[in-house]
Amino acid sequence: ALPISLTKSFTGIMLGAAVNQKAGGVALSDHPAPWIAFAGNPNAVAPDPIDTTCPKQTATPLPESHFGTVKEMTLEEIGTHTSGIPYTPPPPDGSAIQRQCYSGQELVNYIEGGNFPKPPAPWVYSNIGFGFLGYVLQGVYEKATHKSVLWYDLARKQIIVPLHMKHTFDLNVPKKDLSEYAQPYYFSASSQALPAIHWTWDPYPAAGVLRSTAIDMTQYLKLALRVGGPRNLIEAAATAEKNYTAGEDGLGQGLAWQYVPLYPANASSPPPPQVIWKDGGTAGCTTWIGVIEI
């Protein structure tokens, strides 16, 4: 199993945990800029068979005088895709080959310096917005603990280890576990099935870096159902799965988690229950997780 963009649901639960615990004093109504910290990137080296022709870029933090609409958006708006942050960064684009041409600091600088639609903005699914949230969480826990911490280490401490997900990793899957991970394929223009390379998500791991197995994801599903896991983690899942943007059409958005009615509403049927779900996809792979709200 490849959670890929299901990784965002982990980030949403981690944000929910931080808010519930008031870690560092954080709240969903906060602006992100004061929380940003860049403490390095654990996935700086792309795994084989990725090959690039671009050099790894470096950058220094952007002065606050150059900040754009980041000063107006909130953590809740980023978590619900209503911050105005776009789907992908500018060239080099988010393709499998070019994704790692960014450094994390460059991505942070792009978002902090961007003049995006004024929030709350129309809903636009944002990969880089959730990558940005990963750096926000690093800053939150750096303030709370006075220690530098990486998003993946937070994910392991807060979710992966407590749920006993023993085969869930970032890109650096141990060699002994590689046999458990599927080789994705795609169809060429001539309809030939070809092996697909794994996307690397270098500058924004919080958006899609996790790799897992079906057994591990069953443990995670129990958490999403709020029937398994430590109490504080179940409470964090409840915060993440809350519908923050409920509309009359039944659609809505939690912190990464999305809402859709199980079936169209009509006068002859009971009101439809809500499906709380998250999907994902990279070259050759698709994933989906969902629960029905009763």
General description of the model:
This protein is an alpha+beta fold. Helix content is 27%, strand content 10%. The chain has helices at 7-21, 75-79, 104-113, 127-145, 151-160, 214-224, 231-240; strands at residues 185-187, 193-195, 252-253, 258-261, 274-282, 285-293. Strands 3-4-5-6 form a four-stranded antiparallel sheet, with no helix packed on it. A two-stranded antiparallel ribbon has the order 1-2. Helix 1 (7-21) packs parallel to helix 4 (127-145) and helix 1 crosses helix 7. The two termini are 27 Å apart. The relative contact order is 0.21.
Shape: globular
Structural class: alpha+beta
Number of strands: 6
The first-to-last residue Cα distance is: 27 Å
Largest sheet: 4 strands, antiparallel
Strand-residue fraction? 5-15%
Q: Brief description of this entry?
A:
This protein is α+β, with helices and mostly antiparallel strands and 294 residues long. It has helices at 7-21, 75-79, 104-113, 127-145, 151-160, 214-224, 231-240, and strands at residues 185-187, 193-195, 252-253, 258-261, 274-282, 285-293.
Pick out its properties.
294 residues, alpha+beta, four-stranded antiparallel β-sheet, two-stranded antiparallel sheet, 27% helix
How do the helices and strands line up, and which of them pair or pack?
Blueprint: H1 7-21, H2 75-79, H3 104-113, H4 127-145, H5 151-160, E1 185-187, E2 193-195, H6 214-224, H7 231-240, E3 252-253, E4 258-261, E5 274-282, E6 285-293
Antiparallel strand pairs: 1-2, 3-4, 4-5, 5-6
